[in-house]
């Protein structure tokens, strides 16, 4: 059976609805591109006002076309799209690409119109790309489909490209041709009303002609689904993405430390990091990585050797490589011995290997052949600065000859050779990427190296523990009764205990005398917090007094907190919560915030009152695997504080990992919890002393249909 997207990317027939006789219009240029690409199928222009377009018989409507139509390209005014889509459904069309704009990108009315055309598609079993898109391309010689209105038909290759922006699609096609990047398929998906990034990713996963996938995305329709499929695809085909829109989430509106530290871009980084997607910041970097991955294997390690005829670029390369996390081991003794047989006396026998300015093609070839045999390197980086006296083509030919059969990754730099260099084109034509500057190679290798490290990691498992979910549900129901709100204090501690998360218990007192008695029972030193009224951020409002060491200090603290709180609401009675003060250990923060675009975002970091100042935190999208929990903890700059800094005893890191996984399970079980703060969580060498000191849960009741 044919895949449902085959009718879009591998159609037997195409109708261009809105084809035009006027040059320069989208309707004319799209039809022209289909014909000039020599599409291997039938083409039917549709325009009620023109009997012939581009020397081909035209039809008044798609219903008048005598043959079956697999794919319809819709290029009509917004007001006519609904009728055209209805006609396509009646005709039995299987795939639609709606280039017409004016839908959800324009606001509420456009969104309603978009929903109507999607409903028609679902009624007739049609799949839709767009609206407001650039079109689709399939360079397979058996298809030759260029259903876009761009000026460029891309070079045939092994790169699949998905873009939300039509303008970006055109620019990328044009620039990629200049750089020698070839495409298998291109899809501009516009508003993603029906077919999404996820759908096309799955389609490209099974396409034998696609080895690398490039993404340009502005937003995610279903990040949770993306997480599942991207993690699977990244293990067999590299995915490189530019994600635009680094807008901050309204931190002021967040009621937790976790919410204030999280933003949309943090969610994107977490999503890509967990799925192995290589995120780059610019389209230029997207091309740099694409050129490398589409022509060369992923390096087996991060060890690089640089061979150059100029010291300056070699130093630049070294700095950039090291700053991007690459290693530059020195040559083995046997390699140095081989190099000395033919190198100039003043050559450098270190890494980078400077052959000096007089080195010609033969020297490049001999040197590269020698270092290629050295098993200390995974990537070879030839850098050539072309003096006027040396033939660039001779150097290029010898670089290729030396490395033609290597299994190592080769990325070359022709520093200052200039665009249009025949030598550069020669190397590109033989599968060796050429960059203008060494820093671009270093950044590219850094990006790919992180991807390779992700490939090497264990997949990880989502853990499930025996917990008391029924108790948590009762606490939520008892406190909130179907309303939004916060759970703090003793109730918050009970929720943690129900999920096996260790927490310091509370004792309560309503008078200064009672507080002193409680302190004597639990043992000094103690901490006193305002219990009534409920306060989310007690430290900021001076509602906490710590390190109380005598009955007198406890009584004075009670009276001081009572003054700070002031007059209570009618029916409220001032009370305090008392805890044994945990001494020693490291304060961390554990939490969760819900980002609308991504769902629950788990956080771990250095805790205490300075958490929002230090911002030494890590985020991952829920659910967490055991490997995610380990990565979060080990990614902190302050991680050495947990492992025993300057002779200190290491804390129980395994318990922190388990706590993160238990909290992840709590978030999975209760989607009404929108934010969590456990701050501080005291980490100690002794497991019995590792406890949450304070916690708060923000509850947002979901509509019944989402529960």
Task: Walk me through the structure.
This protein is of the alpha/beta class. It folds into four domains: 6-218, Rossmann fold; 296-456, Succinyl-CoA synthetase domains (Rossmann fold), CATH 3.40.50; 505-581, ATP-grasp fold, A domain (Dna Ligase, domain 1, 2-Layer Sandwich); 586-706, ATP-grasp fold, B domain (D-amino Acid Aminotransferase, Chain A, domain 1, 2-Layer Sandwich). Helix content is 37%, strand content 21%. It has 24 helices and 31 strands. The protein has a seven-stranded mixed β-sheet with strand order 9-8-11-10-12-13-14, sandwiched between helices. Strands 21, 26, 27, 28, 29, 30 and 31 form a seven-stranded antiparallel β-sheet that branches. Strands 15, 16, 17, 18, 19 and 20 form a six-stranded parallel β-sheet that branches. A hairpin with a 7-residue loop joins strand 29 and strand 30 (691-692). It is flat and about 95 Å long. Mean pLDDT is 90; it is low at 249-262 and 703-707.
What top-tier CATH class of the largest domain fits best?
Answer: Alpha Beta
Q: Between the first and last Cα atoms, what is the distance in angstroms?
A: 36 Å
CATH fold-level topology of the largest domain:
Rossmann fold
Strand order of the largest sheet: 9-8-11-10-12-13-14
What is the residue-mean pLDDT, rounded to a whole number? 90
Short characterization:
With 707 residues, the protein is of the alpha/beta class. It contains 24 helices and 31 strands.
